[in-house]
Amino acid sequence: MSAETPVCQLLERQAFDYRGWLWVAPPRDAWLETGQGSLLSADQAVRTAWQARGLPTASPFEAVDAAPSGVVLFWPKSHALGEWWLLWLCTHLPPGTPLQLVGENQGGIKRVLKVLAALGLGCRKVDSARRCGLYATRLDRVGIDPDEAWMSFEAEGLRLSSHPGVFGHGKLDDGTRLLLGELPEALEEALDKGRGDILDLGCGDGILAAWLARRGARVTATDVNGFAVEATRRTLEANGLAGEALASDVYSALGTRRFDAIISNPPFHQERAIDYGPAGRLIREAPEHLKPGGQLLLVANAFLPYPDLLTRAFGGFEILADDRRFRVYRAVKA
């Protein structure tokens, strides 16, 4: 099986035995999923793909193999998240463990030289191709706690927890703010009549889940990003609110559960690339996860092609708000 992504194509051409190595935060790539290593990832979609092949996986919130033969860290577009992964590896794995860092030039892989130097870790360039770079070093104790990356901030009268790599890290984004402005009226009848089983899909830092829980909704919050799930759990706890937070690739963890409303500010990027796949699934499969009369409420950039998807899935929709940058859509299951 040949590598599919540029970063994996660069790794594939190395005269190197990666058996027994730990792949950290990689993309989906069939070459990686041939069983030559184990996975450490906060991406539930990637973990599910590996698990379907019977391959070993872990999240950074679980115990991992304490002594892999080596580690390959796929540098993410969020440099703060890349630095967190590096600190996590230095804290949890034995000093001296071989570490390779790989990433796209446009994704900032060349910055790892300065990051490693600041931590006192030596580094050498191994290879470059496909507009990607590969660097090598060894792990060592650096005396910095990776948990210091967690931060909290105030928004909408709530205390929110956030982590690098979580959507809208450290601030309330304008699209979510527009959606929040429409929720009191859109959900008034449902909440008043006790029809408050609500799914926050793509929960991020938990702002929507906490806002809904504070108003008496029975909230289930999901995200494909394990850092977002943990952030939402921390947000609910910080505000003394009840709710369930699950790692889920769109609806994958929900089975046949149905809700009175689904609320979302869905992503449309995968790293630097535009990807409508998750949002498309969210819309297409929403009727299967709504009770009769249940509604889908989502906010999206105005240019995104969601009207056609909503029409095909629900037969129609309405626009509750439009500030030229973002639109809030509502579609109701008959």
TrEMBL record:
Alphabetized Gene3D superfamilies for the sequence: Vaccinia Virus protein VP39
InterPro entries noted in UniProt: DNA_methylase_N6_adenine_CS (IPR002052), Mtase_sm_N (IPR013675), rRNA_ssu_MeTfrase_C (IPR023543), RsmC/RlmG (IPR046977), SAM-dependent_MTases_sf (IPR029063), Small_mtfrase_dom (IPR007848)
Pfam families associated with the record: MTS, MTS_N
Domain Methyltransferase small N-terminal: 69-141
GO annotation, biological process: methylation
Family indicated by similarity: Belongs to the methyltransferase superfamily. RsmC family.
Top-level taxonomic group: Bacteria
Domain Methyltransferase small: 158-330
EC numbers for this chain: 2.1.1.172
Location in or out of the cell: Cytoplasm
PANTHER family for this protein: RIBOSOMAL RNA SMALL SUBUNIT METHYLTRANSFERASE C (PTHR47816)
GO terms assigned for molecular function: methyltransferase activity
UniProt function note: Specifically methylates the guanine in position 1207 of 16S rRNA in the 30S particle.
Protein name: Ribosomal RNA small subunit methyltransferase C
Enzyme type, top EC level: transferase
Complex formation: Monomer.
Reactions listed under catalytic activity: guanosine(1207) in 16S rRNA + S-adenosyl-L-methionine = N(2)-methylguanosine(1207) in 16S rRNA + S-adenosyl-L-homocysteine + H(+)
Key words, A-Z: Cytoplasm, Methyltransferase, rRNA processing, S-adenosyl-L-methionine, Transferase
UniProt main location, coarse: cytoplasm
